[in-house]
Specification:
Helices cover about 75% and strands about 0% of the residues. By secondary structure, it is mainly α.
Amino acid sequence: METMEQTSREAEDRRIAALRLKRRRDFFWHLVTYLVINGLLVFVWAIGPRATFWPMWLMVFWGIGLAFHAYYAFGRQEVTEADVDAELRRSGRSGDTSGR
């Protein structure tokens, strides 16, 4: 028989999983946009006078933003109720929220 705590944790786990999936999907579309736009800019550069490779500047700075987005989507972990419970156990305050 499930307790309220198990049901609550399962709901929290589902919410976090859905959030991770959304972040990954958002990153995928950001990556596709980056590749399409920069591909078009390189094409414009290639058919032009080719003085300097000016698309590089956009690629570098947008790439930095894309790297941060990748970290946010794949590297960063949400704090869960289990994490909070573990921290409370480590600090010796298992569930005591009275502020003492």
